[in-house]
Amino acid sequence: MKTEIPGFRFSVACAGIKQTERPDMALMVSNPPARWSGAFTTNRVKAAPVVMGLERLKAGVPLSAVLANSGNANACVGERGMADAKTLCRELARLLKVPENQVLMASTGVIGQTLPLDRMKDALPSLVEGLGSCSLEDLATAIMTTDRYPKWELSRPDRYPDIGIGGVVKGAGMIYPDMATMLGFFFMNAGLPQSVLREITRLGVQESFNQILLDGDRSTNDTVLVLDNGTALSGNRRADDVAHAVSMELGRMMKSLSERIVDNGEGVTKVVTVLVEGAKNRQDAKCVAESVAKSPLVKTAFYGEDPNWGRIMAAIGYSGADIDQESVDIYLDQAQLVSSGQFAGGVAEHKAAEVMKNRAYTLRISLRQGEATHRLTTSDLSVEYVKINADYRS
Question: Which CATH class is domain 271-390?
Answer without folding.
Answer: alpha beta
